[in-house]
Specification:
Elements (H helix, E strand, L loop, with lengths): L10 H12 L19
Length: about 40
């Protein structure tokens, strides 16, 4: 199962969100990926 908590450009902001999620789920982790954000039609 996956939970996307946000889309961040700065790693520090992603790490901050990850720290909050880890309070509830200690095994949560961050994945750096490329995401196409545009028109698909």
């Amino acid at each position: 199962m996956a939970l996307v908590a946000g889309i961040y450009q700065e790693p520090a902001r992603a790490d901050s969100a990850l720290a909050m999620v880890r309070q509830a789920v200690s095994t949560a982790f961050r994945v750096k990926t490329r995401l196409y954000m545009g028109c698909m039609h």
